[in-house]
Write a structure and sequence with these properties.
96 residues; mainly alpha
């Protein structure tokens, strides 16, 4: 992977929106895989997995509030199905 650097001072540039979505989604899928393989359930996530999921939801929410459609959709899905968050149809509709 090539790091993006400022052309003037050569300091690494912050990630763009697409990179942030990609990284947050990757973290979500790691937690999701724990549930899919039967190692845990959404309602009984280990503390470490819940922490990762909470950070992912926080990042998606920040991006969704800026109008990112993928983050909005992701939030809609998890609130609709209660995947690591309290199931909330109103919140799901808000993000869909």
């Amino acid at each position: 992977m090539v790091k993006q650097l400022c052309p003037l001072c050569r300091v690494p540039l912050p990630n763009g929106t697409e990179k942030n979505i990609e990284e947050a989604s990757r973290r979500y899928f790691v937690v999701s895989r724990l549930v899919e393989t039967g190692r845990t359930s959404w309602s009984a996530l280990p503390t470490s997995a819940q922490y990762v999921l909470d950070a992912t939801v926080t990042e998606w929410r920040a991006l969704a509030e800026k109008g990112n459609a993928q983050a909005q959709y992701n939030l809609g899905v998890i609130y609709m199905s209660g995947q690591g968050v309290a199931q909330n149809d109103a919140e799901a509709v808000r993000w869909f």
